[in-house]
Amino acid sequence: MKRQLLILTCSLLLICCDHHDMKDKAFFLEGVWTLRQVKSPEGYITDYPVENSTTCHIYDSDSTLYECTLSTTATGMVVMPRNKYAITLIDRGDSYLYLEGDDPRPLTILNDTSIIIQRYGMQYTWVRAKDIAENWGDDILGINKSDLMDEPNEELRRYVLSTKERHQANVIHGFAVFSVFIILVALFIAQMALANRRERRRLQLQLEQIHEVQENRPASVRQVIASVENEFFASDDYHSLQQRISSGQQLKEQAWTEIEEQLKSVYPGFCSQLRSLYAMSELEYQVCLLIKLRISPTEIATVLSRDVSTISTVRSRLFYKVFGRKGGAKDWDDFILSLRT
Question: Which residues pair with 262 in a beta bridge?
Answer without folding.
Answer: none
